[in-house]
C-alpha cells in the first residue's frame, strides 16, 4: 500500500494479484498455452521459481517473448495458473477418497488415505513444492492457498454432516478448516524431510487426526 500525501492528497494503492490473460479458444493457441505451462512447471521443478525468468519459459516452449506475454503478463500469472491447476488436482483427490464415506470410523480412515495421496501428489508433481512456496511469498498470490484450504474444509464439513455429526455451524466450520489446514501443512513439512522422517511425521498426524475426530464426535 502506498500513501501519497503531497498537496494534501492521499492516494492509496495496493498490489493487485497477477492474472493470466483470457485463455485462447483456438485449438492451436490452447496447445501453445499448455506447452508454456508444461515447460514452466519443469523449469520451476528443476531450478526453483525464483531462478526462472519469463525468457527461460519462452525459450523452452519455443515461443517468442511477445507471444508469452500475450497469454501471461508476468511470471506471477504463470505461477497462479499452475497453482490453481495443482490445487484442483488436490481437491479432486480429496473428494474422490471421501465421497463414499458413510461413518465416522470411515472418515477417520479416509483422512489417513488423503494424507498419503496428498503427499504422493507432491512427489508426482515436483513443481508443486516451489509453486506453493511462491504463492506464500507473494502477497498477491496468498489468496490461492487460503481459497484452496477453505474448499477442502467445506467438503470435509459436508462429509461430517453426512455421517451424522451435529452441532453449531460456526464451530464445525472452524474444526474442518483447522483439520485441513494442519493436514496440508503436515504434508508440506514432510516433503522437506528425509523419507523416513517424513513418514514418521505423516503417520503421527494420521493418528492424531483420527483420534481427535473420534474423541470429539463419536457417541
UniProtKB/TrEMBL annotation:
The keyword DNA-binding applies. Residues 1-29 are annotated as: Disordered. GO terms for molecular function: DNA-binding transcription factor activity; transcription cis-regulatory region binding. Keywords: DNA-binding. Residues 30-90 form the HTH tetR-type domain. Residues 1-17 have a biased composition (Polar residues). The keyword S-adenosyl-L-methionine does not apply. Residues 53-72 bind DNA. It holds the Pfam family TetR_C_22. This is HTH tetR-type domain-containing protein. It comes from Devosia geojensis.
Amino acid at each position: 500500500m502506498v500513501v501519497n500525501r503531497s498537496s494534501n492528497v492521499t492516494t492509496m494503492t495496493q498490489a493487485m494479484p497477477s492474472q493470466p490473460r483470457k485463455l485462447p479458444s483456438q485449438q492451436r493457441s490452447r496447445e501453445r498455452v499448455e506447452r508454456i505451462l508444461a515447460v514452466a512447471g519443469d523449469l520451476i521443478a528443476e531450478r526453483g521459481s525464483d531462478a526462472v525468468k519469463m525468457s527461460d519459459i519462452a525459450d523452452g516452449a519455443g515461443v517468442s517473448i511477445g507471444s508469452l506475454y500475450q497469454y501471461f503478463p508476468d511470471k506471477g500469472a504463470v505461477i497462479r495458473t499452475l497453482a490453481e491447476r495443482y490445487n484442483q488436482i488436490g481437491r479432486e483427490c480429496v473428494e474422490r477418497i471421501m465421497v463414499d464415506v458413510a461413518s465416522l470410523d470411515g472418515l477417520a480412515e479416509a483422512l489417513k488415505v488423503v494424507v498419503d495421496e496428498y503427499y504422493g501428489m507432491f512427489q508426482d508433481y515436483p513443481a508443486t513444492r516451489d509453486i506453493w512456496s511462491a504463492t506464500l511469498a507473494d502477497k498477491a498470490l496468498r489468496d490461492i492457498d487460503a481459497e484452496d484450504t477453505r474448499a477442502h474444509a467445506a467438503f470435509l464439513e459436508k462429509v461430517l454432516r453426512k455421517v451424522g455429526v451435529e452441532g453449531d455451524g460456526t464451530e464445525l466450520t472452524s474444526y474442518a478448516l483447522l483439520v485441513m489446514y494442519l493436514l496440508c501443512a503436515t504434508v508440506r513439512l514432510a516433503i522437506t524431510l528425509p523419507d523416513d522422517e517424513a513418514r514418521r511425521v505423516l503417520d503421527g498426524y494420521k493418528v492424531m487426526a483420527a483420534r481427535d475426530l473420534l474423541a470429539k464426535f463419536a457417541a
